[in-house]
Amino acid sequence: MDRPNPGLYRDGNPDPALDPAGQPVRDETVPAAEYAPDAAGYPQGAGQPADDLVMTTPPAMRRFDPWNYREETALGDGADVVGYTVEALDGHIGKIDRSSTLVGDSYLVVDTGPWIFGKRVLLPAGTVNHVDSLDGKIYVDRTKTQIRNSPEFDPDQFGPEYRDKIGGYYDSTYNE
Q1: Which CATH architecture has domain 71-175?
Q2: pTM of the model
Q3: What tens digit of pLDDT does each residue of 112-130 get?
Q4: Where are the CATH 2.30.30.240 domain residues in the chain?
Q5: Measured distance CA(44)–CA(85) in Å, rounded
Q6: Average pLDDT, the chain
């Protein structure tokens, strides 16, 4: 008789060391230090999450996508954020004057007011890491200096080359 996993069997019988049916079941909700099977073969407190065990999935390393909002920001097509204030990592930078939430073409135009007199900056959607709809605030993961040093916003030049320039600038700020 052909066996699907011949390495599991010796002389027609399953190798007990490799047979999953013969292995104890490990309850992943119990820390290893507390894993002590009782007489029935189950860990103490089986089925209950341990108080000191934090189960999280580590964030995946992702490539900076300048012209799309991150999934966790929950901004989709048609979201109206004009008038929201914008907070950098180290403080307030201004108020949103114009925005786009179109997939692949999402951005914020921020009027910096007195902070950078008369300057408006273009922030690619990929710089947004949190939106507080109740307080009308958007948080970006860049510093005020990085934003101040960004290329000047020029609505007349808003085309593929300009977008590449802006996207490239903010992409490079991740490596600082």
Answers
A1: Roll (2.30)
A2: 0.63
A3: 888 776 789 999 999 999 9
A4: 71-175
A5: 51
A6: 76
